[in-house]
Amino acid sequence: DGGITQSPKYLFRKEGQNVTLSCEQNLNHDAMYWYRQDPGQGLRLIYYSQIVNDFQKGDIAEGYSVSREKKESFPLTVTSAQKNPTAFYLCASSGQVGMGNQPQHFGDGTRLSIL
Amino acid sequence: GQNIDQPTEMTATEGAIVQINCTYQTSGFNGLFWYQQHAGEAPTFLSYNVLDGLEEKGRFSSFLSRSKGYSYLLLKELQMKDSASYLCAVSGGSYIPTFGRGTSLIVHP
């Protein structure tokens, strides 16, 4: 079955440490996205990528970095510069940006906590 | 920029009908999505509207009025499993969806 896989499901970070969240999709989707979800805040866009080797900042990119070296993979690094990283992180993909009717498919999320 | 507004929480009775509203202001419009999200799980796609009117899909229907910047999700014959958050997302001029804060629906017996 095609889908989008995030790992790990739970992640703990020490102060000053970088951590990387994995996101892999086998849907052959061009576009991939990272969102952060806090209680009462809805989904806020961190980064998105429309094509391999290209990505754009979203609304809250500070303290995060991404790469898109393969179509299937879009890892997110939470750097030590992100002062409040505790949140639920969701990765999504969609067929193409620029096609308005393409729904997003979401992974099951990674819950990041600070030790 | 975009601004999307939905009620924070709603409650309803099993078997009843509930309407969840979403109002938006956006520069450019390329469609509106509704997603369902159970606690701690991934959002799942429910509906997409780009033209005015009602789209019906089983127990769920979604309505759009572009001139009013307004949409609603209608859930009929409510079941306990419908207790979840419902997310409204608008695709603006950039085609990148912006999400509202979500409406938490509680269905009680």
Question: What does this molecule look like?
Answer:
The complex is a heterodimer of chains A (about 120) and B (about 110). Chain A is mainly beta and about 120 residues long. Chain A contains no helices and eleven strands. In chain A, strands 2, 4, 5, 6, 9, 10 and 11 form a seven-stranded mixed sheet that branches. Chain A has a four-stranded antiparallel sheet with strand order 1-3-8-7, with no helix packed on it. In chain A, strand 5 (about 40-50) and strand 6 (about 55) form a beta hairpin. Chain A starts with a strand and ends with a strand. By secondary structure, chain B is mainly β. Helices cover about 0% and strands about 55% of the residues of chain B. Chain B has no helices and eleven strands. Chains A and B meet through strand 5 and strand 10 of A and strand 5, strand 9 and strand 10 of B.
Which structural category do the helix and sheet elements of chain B fall into?
A: mainly beta
Q: What's the main sheet of chain A like? A: 7 strands, mixed
Low-confidence stretches of chain B: none
Residue ranges of chain A: pLDDT <50 for 5 or more in a row?
A: none
Give the count of helical stretches of chain B: 0
Distance between the termini of chain A: 36 Å
- So what's the overall shape of chain B? globular
SSE order of chain B in H/E notation? EEEEEEEEEEE
Mean pLDDT of chain B: 95
**Strand segment count of chain A:** 11
Largest β-sheet summary of chain B? 6 strands, mixed
Q: Give the end-to-end Cα distance of chain B, rounded to a whole number of Å.
A: 41 Å
Derived structural class of chain A: mainly beta
User: What oligomeric state best describes the polypeptide chains here?
Assistant: heterodimer
- Helix and strand element order of chain A: EEEEEEEEEEE
Net shape of chain A: globular
Share of helix among residues of chain B?
A: under 10%
Radius of gyration of chain B: 13 Å
User: Biggest interface between protein chains, with counts per chain?
Assistant: A-B, 25 and 24 residues
Helix content class of chain A: under 10%
